[in-house]
Amino acid sequence: MLDLTCVGVVIIGRNEGERLVRCLASLTAQFSKLIYVDSGSTDDSVNAALSAGADVVALDMTVPFTAARARNEGFARMRKIYPQIQYVQFVDGDCELVDGWLEAAATFLDNNKNVAMVCGRLRERHPEHSIYNLLCDIEWDTEIGLAKACGGIAMARVDGFEAAGGYRANLIAGEESELCVRLRLAGWQVWRLDADMALHDAAMTHFWQWWKRTRRSGYAYAEGKYLHGSSPEMHRVKESRRIWIWGLLIPLVVACLTVWLGVWSLALLLLYPLQVVRIALRGTRSAHENWWRAFFLVLGKFPEAAGQMNFLYNRVTGNTAHLIEYK
């Protein structure tokens, strides 16, 4: 059995309430080296973390908040208190780590010296509570093995993380995949294991929560393309192209053709239901899940396009990006 004294855990959160309590409980039962980074909570989060034995870092909220900055500061605190740490597990306060994951991830990193980050299967705690929670659970069911990216819940090799400079602190979203691009460019690998890693509580019950979360994804794709679109792997180029075609170009073409063809131009809008059918028929889950996933993937191109335009506006005007929150 691997000695877990080489592993530290960094938790980030704000006003997670009972979710944070569950997160801490899932860790204190099997672990002791905990850093909790709080971003201005007004509930009892800090006291809950202290009671669980975690060291608490209070972010300076006069500086624009990002999850990337919170993770970086938690990592820095971990390295200061526990300089012997070799691996750091990042966890969001709305997640609970599964028993055995820390050992599985650390063992994999121990046996694969060229791997900088490793993740496992993240599952939604209550996919039955809403279609939006279910969509999250489907989204996180990605392929096993060598991966292009991991989410915010992952274990990092300290040497690789430090050499890469950590997360890009000013990114409001997509900081995990951006880091993974830099790691690969430096010769590291990212892996996803065939093992349960954590339970997540998205708590999305309203359409506009889904819309904001999806708009944030569009923003992240745009920024990822801006930063690394010219790299060998053309990071986020294909995703951004699809967003512009389906979220903006087709509606604009239909609007322009209406001048000459009248209502007949609306026939082009049939491309959207046809795309839903195409995606659904290629799905690998149940028919129910495949159809819902297909519908929202197509519909999602509109909020994603809004996110892309938001990024372009900020680039042109020099405005500072602000976090797009859905909770």
Give the CATH topology of the largest domain.
Spore Coat Polysaccharide Biosynthesis Protein SpsA, Chain A
Helix share of residues? 40-55%
Catalogue the unreliable spans. none
Global geometry: globular
Mean pLDDT: 94
- Report the sheet with the most strands, covering strand number, pairing sense and barrel closure: 9 strands, mixed
CATH top level label of the largest domain:
Alpha Beta
Radius of gyration: 21 Å
Number of helices: 12
**Distance between termini?**
39 Å
Structural class: alpha/beta
Task: Report the CATH superfamily of the largest domain.
Answer: Spore Coat Polysaccharide Biosynthesis Protein SpsA, Chain A
Question: In percent, how much strand structure appears in the residues?
Answer: 15-25%
Give me some keywords for this one.
Spore Coat Polysaccharide Biosynthesis Protein SpsA, Chain A; 2 domains; 49% helix; 327 residues; nine-stranded mixed β-sheet; alpha/beta; 16% strand
Short structural description:
By secondary structure, the protein is an alpha/beta fold. Helices cover 49% and strands 16% of the residues.
Walk me through this protein's architecture:
By secondary structure, this protein is an alpha/beta fold. The protein has two domains: about 5-205, Spore Coat Polysaccharide Biosynthesis Protein SpsA, Chain A (Alpha-Beta Complex), CATH 3.90.550.10; about 235-315, no CATH class. It is about 50% helix and about 15% strand. It has twelve helices and nine strands. It has helices at about 20-30, 45-50, 65-80, 100-110, 130-140, 160-165, 175-185, 205-230, 235-260, 270-280, 285-300, 300-315, and strands at about 5-15, 35-40, 55-60, 85-90, 95, 115-125, 145, 155, 190-200. Strands 1, 2, 3, 4, 5, 6, 7, 8 and 9 form a nine-stranded mixed beta sheet that branches. Helix 8 crosses helix 9 and helix 8 (about 205-230) packs across helix 12. The longest helix is centred in the C-terminal third of the chain and has 25 residues, at about 235-260.
